[in-house]
Specification:
Elements lengths: L9 H24 L2 H10 L21 E2 L12 H5 L5 H19 L4 E5 L13 E9 L2 E10 L7 H4 L5 H21 L2 E8 L6 H18 L3 H25 L2 E2 L2
Parallel strand pairs: 4-5
Antiparallel strand pairs: 1-6, 2-3, 3-4
Length: about 260
Amino acid sequence: MTAYVWAISPYDINQKMLSSKLDDYQLQGIFNRSSVADRARLLSISAPPFLFLAFGCAIRRPWAPFRTKPIQYSILDPLGHHASTCKRGGDAVHRHNLLRDVFADSCRLAHLPVKLEVGNNLTPDHDHSRPADVLVHNWSLGKPAAFDFCVTSPLNSLILSEAGVSSGVAAQASEIRKHNSNDAKCVELGWVCIPLVVETYGAWGQEAVKTFAQLASRLAIACSKPKSVVINEIYGRLNTCLMRSISSAILTRIVPS
C-alpha cells in the first residue's frame, strides 16, 4: 500500500492569509460606515467563540415585509430589538428557561448532581429570592455553584455608546449586577455565585465562557469525546435555543401592515 503525505504549499498559506486580510478589510469598512447601534450588533455577533447563528437583524435586514408591533399594539422597531427584550407575553421567561434546561442537561450528562430554581426560603430571614437557576453540587473546591442565567441587550440606551466600541459590555454589566444581587446570599449558603449572561446577538459573558470550558472538560471525559467537539456542542445548543426563541418572539408580534 502506498502512503501519501500531503503538504501545504507556501502559495496556499499566502492565499489563506490574503483572503483573511480581505475579509478583515471589508468588515472594518462596514463597521466604519455603521451607526453606533449597528456597531454594537456587529461586535456582539462576532464575539468569541464566533458560534452564534447570524440572522437578519444583526446586519440591519428587515425580518419580513410586515410592520412589527408588540402585544399592546404600539409601533415596534422593524429590526426586532424590542421583541428580543420585551417582558410581555412570556417570551423572555421561556427563553430563560430554555437556556437553563439545556445547561442543566449538559451537567447531568457530565454526571453532576443538579437542582433547578434553588434558594427560596433557605436563610434565617426567609428571603424568597432564588439566586440559583441551576445549582450544581461539588463544582469548585467542593463548593456548590449557583448558576444564574440572564439575557441582556447591547442596544440598551444606558450602555449603547460603550457597546458600540467594544464587545461584551452589556454582558459584563449584567454580570456585575447579578453579583451585587446574589453574592451575599450565596456566601451565606456556602455557594459560589456564577452569572451566565448572554447578549441577544450571541456574545457570552466571561464567566459563562470559563464555565462552559470547565463543563466541557468534565463532559468530554464522561462522553469519551474530544473537548473541542464538546465545547462546540454546548455553544451550538445554547445559541440555537437563543436564536429560535428570539425568532419566535418576533414572529408572534408580526401583523400585516
